[in-house]
């Protein structure tokens, strides 16, 4: 189906393109040594990502690789395996690897108690991160905030703390299986703010059951009371094997209207829109001084569920959404030795077409935009010659040329979740469709 037809059918929410190719296009392959994979890579500006696949509860909409309420023997075994993986990765990368960005995600990394968080940071010591200067970020949830955990984050100069709140409306929150109470959320936010992290982010969701324009406005205004430097607005997706995916959802799709309402509210409060989901105060631009470039630079992911990106291969552990699938993958991760971690057996070998499409998607879906000059430098060709279908974005006024860079128009921003999947290569789409999710 072409872009015009998709828009006419109002098929606005095809999928969130946060990475390309999607993990469901990864497959097993014969072992390749980690050292070989990284041997010819530029290691001067790497992103280190650590994944903690634990949460207090499993939210009904969530398809991230995480498990609810694991007990201590599992978390300890996980951290020990994580330390073995960190050693193997450090050995493969060598002493010259330089990290210009760090993130701790999940799941909910602050599900770990203070002692476990310290263990995690100790396991990362070998990478010599310059915590003072590099941008760094940690995901949290309201019920896992405590002063001792925040102190550890502060001791490591974490710049950005993000909290998924999703809504301040009780019925909406219960509809996705979350048990949080506003009083606890407010207390947690106050605790975070008392530590003066440079950037505080709140995540909200639109399209929830029971949500109305009035209740959405209330959630937005409540979030704004805390003056977060960043706000992410996520459209609700009902995905296979998630809580609301399994039990059904009475879908009354008002997402586009709620998106426009949320966007207009945040813009009127002085936020800049950086992508369909991401809004920030202008000051964040000065605080974010990192050199990492997501289209080009490598990422090393540690932990079960984390992805790693080199120019030639994207790799990770296997993926699941259902509880039993995640449990099996976690058990296998925890049993791995340092030698096991020095081999890669699952991922995607990046051909030229996938590299080009990734570059275009990572650029164009963010307000940094697509620079034909940078594309030319990297691929020795022009994106519109390689992919003539991109001209439809110009014809439909979804992108504009601003200072030599193609950026989304307001209409293009609102249709990001349609534009992304529309531009996936047919073979990637085929792999994603034939993947059987566990
Ligand atoms: S949305 Fe966040 S808190 Fe909820 S299950 Fe997913 S990772 Fe955990």
From TrEMBL:
Q: Which domain of life is it from?
A: Bacteria
List the SUPFAM superfamilies hit by this protein, alphabetically.
Radical SAM enzymes
Please name the GO terms that the record assigns under molecular function: 4 iron, 4 sulfur cluster binding; catalytic activity
Entry's InterPro entries? Coproporphyrinogen-III_oxidase, Elp3/MiaA/NifB-like_rSAM, rSAM, rSAM_horseshoe, rSAM_sf
Q: Which GO terms describe its biological process?
A: porphyrin-containing compound biosynthetic process
Q: Name one Pfam family in it.
A: Radical_SAM
Domain spans labelled Radical SAM core = 40-277
Q: Per its record, how is this protein called by name?
A: Coproporphyrinogen III oxidase family protein
């Amino acid at each position: 189906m072409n872009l015009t037809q998709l828009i006419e059918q109002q098929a606005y929410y095809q999928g969130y393109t946060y990475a390309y190719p999607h993990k469901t296009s990864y497959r097993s392959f014969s072992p390749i040594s980690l050292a070989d994979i990284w041997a010819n890579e530029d290691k001067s500006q790497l992103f280190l990502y650590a994944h903690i696949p634990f949460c207090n509860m499993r939210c009904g909409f969530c398809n991230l690789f995480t498990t609810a309420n694991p007990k201590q023997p599992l978390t300890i075994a996980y951290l020990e395996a994580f330390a073995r993986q960190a050693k193997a990765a450090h050995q493969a990368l060598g002493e010259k690897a330089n990290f210009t960005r760090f993130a701790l995600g999940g799941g909910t990394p602050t599900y770990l108690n203070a002692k476990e968080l310290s263990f995690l940071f100790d396991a990362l010591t070998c990478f010599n991160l310059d915590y003072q200067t590099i941008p760094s970020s940690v995901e949290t949830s309201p019920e896992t905030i405590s002063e001792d955990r925040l102190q550890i984050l502060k001791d490591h100069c974490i710049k950005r703390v993000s909290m998924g709140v999703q809504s301040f409306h009780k019925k909406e929150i219960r509809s996705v299986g979350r048990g949080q109470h506003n009083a606890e959320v407010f207390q947690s936010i106050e605790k975070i703010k008392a530590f003066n992290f440079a950037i505080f982010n709140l995540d909200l969701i639109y399209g929830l059951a029971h949500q109305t324009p009035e209740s959405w406005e209330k959630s937005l205004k409540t979030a704004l009371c805390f003056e977060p430097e960043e706000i992410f607005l996520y459209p609700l997706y009902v995905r296979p094997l998630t809580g609301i995916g399994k039990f059904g959802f009475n879908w009354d799709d008002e997402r586009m209207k709620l998106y426009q309402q949320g966007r207009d509210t945040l813009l009127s409060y002085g936020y800049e829109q950086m992508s369909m989901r991401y809004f920030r105060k202008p000051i964040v631009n000065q605080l974010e001084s990192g050199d990492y470039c997501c289209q080009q630079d490598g990422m090393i992911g540690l932990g079960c569920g984390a992805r790693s990106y080199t120019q030639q291969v994207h790799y990770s552990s296997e993926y699941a959404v259902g509880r039993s699938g995640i449990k099996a993958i976690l058990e296998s991760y925890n049993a791995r030795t340092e030698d096991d971690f020095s081999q890669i057996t699952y991922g995607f070998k990046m051909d030229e077409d996938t590299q080009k499409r990734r570059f275009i998607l990572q650029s164009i879906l963010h307000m940094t935009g697509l620079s034909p000059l940078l594309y030319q430098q990297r691929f020795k060709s022009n994106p519109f010659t390689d992919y003539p279908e991109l001209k439809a974005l110009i014809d439909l006024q979804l992108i504009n040329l601003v200072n030599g860079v193609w950026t989304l128009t307001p209409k293009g921003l609102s249709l990001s979740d349609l534009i992304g999947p529309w531009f996936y290569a047919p073979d990637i789409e085929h792999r994603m469709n034939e993947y059987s999710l566990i």
